[in-house]
Fold this sequence. Notes:
By secondary structure, the chain is an alpha+beta fold. Helix content is about 20%, strand content about 30%. The chain folds into two domains: about 5-80, Gyrase A, domain 2; about 85-235, Cyclophilin, CATH 2.40.100.
Amino acid sequence: xxxxxxxxxxxxxxxxxxxxxDRGLSERVLGLDAIIRSNPPAGIVETVPTFRSxxxxxxxxxxSRGELQxxxxxxxxLGDNPRPGATLWHVPVCYEGEFAPDLAEVAxxxxxxxxxxxxxxxxxxxxxxxxxxxxxxxYMGDLPPQLALPRRADPRLRVPAGSISIAxxxxxxxxxxxxxxxxxxxxxxxRMFDPQRSKPALFAPGDAVKFQRVDAAAFAxxxxxxxxxxxxxxxxxxxx
Length: 240
């Protein structure tokens, strides 16, 4: 699909790479984002990566949609560079009891044993496509095909903060209590969004995530450490 430039009001330009959730498209989005952030054209306020496009916000007093498009178009030929500074996060998850209210149902719908659902989910290295819906809410793929399910027919009014969820080809973590229609198969005690951190959102688009299974006792211990700010999520730079 040919790259399209679309206006989003009078303060944003959307660079659209395709029409699907796809790792290749994501790398193109993140590559352009990295290039622009490294040497932003005049007037750019912020860039926001999505599944298949990059939204570029600008100050209309400093530049125009046409000027911005002319500045960005040549950057599309510079290659699909991975996002610099990407991080691999190891996230503790409890897949037991009250933390996994939909695990048995997911197992029934997929024809798998609950332990097999957990093994598939925790055995996958996920790609953070984008943040959205709530501050710090990561949309991550790609879920193993055996776990692909539509959203729940009966969304919940309250999904607890830290819930690990799956729907379609994606998995996500709810940073705050909120309504939600995804299947809940576990929970993490870590904070996905913390205004007191220098970077409030824990993950960034282009990061990778591995889930580490912990029991209820370990979950409680980690939660206490998180509450007293004595816990650091295990992470490492991703080699470029």
